[in-house]
Each structure stands twice: as structure tokens, then as C-alpha cells.
From TrEMBL:
GO molecular function: ribose-5-phosphate isomerase activity
Identification of the protein by name: Ribose-5-phosphate isomerase A
Organism per entry: Methylobrevis albus
Listed pathway(s): Carbohydrate degradation; pentose phosphate pathway; D-ribose 5-phosphate from D-ribulose 5-phosphate (non-oxidative stage): step 1/1
Quaternary structure note: Homodimer.
Active site: E106 (proton acceptor)
Length: 235
């Protein structure tokens, strides 16, 4: 196991301690969240009773393969806890997510959860969000108009940078689990994430964006010197 994997596993293990019998869980997407699913599966095999709502087809496949019982948001009345990774988090526990393309389902699931716990390693901690290109999920119709509107919204906040469609391994635009495309916006330093989130959400062709504002209740950071946990003060 690489050092990076070991840290991801440690963060996932710390989040697992917050899981109790009978919980309805949101299951995140990505290399860190998949460690949580693996460790959760071991506890399920040992008798823990939980149900999970996966945030992507990839996570659903992994959970099924490992025997984690799944459900949907239509079949439960909200979730107790979502555990997910992030591409960046700042001092206010605002996040950039969507590096794996799952931001839309991830945000729906997180928003329907009493708590969202983010599992990360030190490399994800930033002073300003934006060094990681911000994923923006857009409908496939009228992308010229959507990109112009994104540029205008960004310019209104003194932001600029390249907008690039995310591509798949075949050189085609990457299609998300919901059948949309993703635009990665290289804004570099997002000094007003809440304002940018609102401006992007107001654009008709934008389905969702990877700014997760006021959603994370806790961030768990695994580092070489141990595991740190930061809770959002109001929660
Ligand atoms: O769409 C993907 C998600 O937002 C991931 O949780 C995020 O990209 C972090 O992934 P990883 O744990 O692989 O760095």
C-alpha cells in the first residue's frame, strides 16, 4: 500500500467510528471514499446493520460487490451520515468536489444527510479554493451559451481562467452518471466561494457545481503525524 493509500485508509477508518448500527449512510465516490466502503463492508460482514445510498455507479458497483446493502433516497426519509472525499477544503470547511465526476449525486446525497463527514489527507487542505479546477456539470444542450454565462458570472467576481470540457479515455466528452458533461474551470483562487456558488447555480445550463458550501459538518484529515478532526462550529 502506498503512503497516500495508507492515509486515505486511516481517514476512512476514523469516519467509520462515527457509524452506528441502524444508520442510513451516504456513500461517497473516489479513491478515499472507496476505502470507507471497503472498511464498512468488513463491519457489515461482521454483523453491522446499515443501508447505504451510493453517490455514483462506481460506488454502487463496489458496495454491491462487497455486500454493503444499498437503498435509494426514495426509500428512506433522509440519511444519518454521508462519508465522502473532497478535492479541496478551506478553513470554513467549504469544499471543491467532483474530480471524479460525481458532484451532482454527491451534493444531492450530502444535502439530504444530517451530517456530512469529509475524509481527506493533508494535500487537500488549502487557504483558498480554486487551485483544483472547479468541476461544473452542464447539460449537453446549448453549451456555448452556458460557457458564456459561466465566464460572465466569473468576471462579475473578478475571476477568469480556462474552461475545459472533461474528456474520457476515448477522447470524447466525459458523460456523467446523469448524462451531462463536465466543464473544469481553472479559476486558481476563489476568494468568494459563496457568491460564486450562487452565481453558477443561477445559470440555466448549469446542473450543479463542485462548490460544497456549508455542507460538510466535519473534515477528517489523515497526515503523517496522525489524524486531525475539524468540526464546523455551528454543528
Ligand atoms: O467526483 C468525485 C468526488 O467528488 C471525490 O470525492 C473527489 O474527487 C475526491 O476524490 P479522491 O478521494 O479520489 O481524491
Amino acid at each position: 500500500m502506498t503512503t497516500a493509500d495508507a492515509l486515505k485508509r486511516e481517514a476512512a477508518a476514523a469516519a467509520l467510528e462515527m457509524v452506528a448500527n441502524g444508520m442510513r449512510l451516504g456513500l461517497g465516490t473516489g479513491s478515499t471514499a472507496s476505502w470507507f466502503v471497503r472498511l464498512l463492508a468488513e463491519r457489515v460482514a461482521a454483523g453491522l446493520e446499515v443501508v447505504g445510498v451510493p453517490t455514483s455507479e462506481a460506488t454502487a458497483a463496489l458496495a454491491r460487490e462487497l455486500g454493503v446493502p444499498l437503498t435509494t433516497l426514495d426509500d428512506v426519509d433522509g440519511l444519518d451520515l454521508t462519508v465522502d472525499g473532497a478535492d479541496e477544503f478551506d478553513g470554513e470547511l467549504n469544499l471543491v468536489k467532483g474530480g471524479g465526476g460525481a458532484l451532482l449525486r454527491e451534493k444531492i446525497v450530502a444535502a439530504d444527510s444530517a451530517r456530512m463527514v469529509v475524509i481527506t489527507d493533508e494535500s487537500k487542505r488549502v487557504e483558498w479554493l480554486g487551485a483544483f479546477p472547479l468541476p461544473i456539470e452542464v447539460v449537453t444542450f446549448g453549451t456555448g451559451a452556458t460557457l458564456r454565462a459561466i465566464r460572465a458570472a466569473a468576471a462579475g467576481l473578478d475571476l477568469s481562467g480556462s474552461l475545459a470540457f472533461r474528456m474520457d479515455s476515448n477522447g470524447n466528452r466525459r458523460v456523467t452518471d446523469q448524462g451531462n458533461w463536465i466543464v473544469d474551470a481553472s479559476f486558481r483562487q476563489i476568494s468568494a466561494p459563496k457568491a460564486l456558488a450562487s452565481a453558477l447555480s443561477a445559470i440555466p445550463g448549469v446542473v450543479e457545481h463542485g462548490l460544497f458550501i456549508d455542507l460538510a459538518s466535519t473534515v477528517i484529515i489523515a497526515g503523517r503525524t496522525g489524524v486531525e478532526r475539524i468540526d464546523r462550529p455551528s454543528l
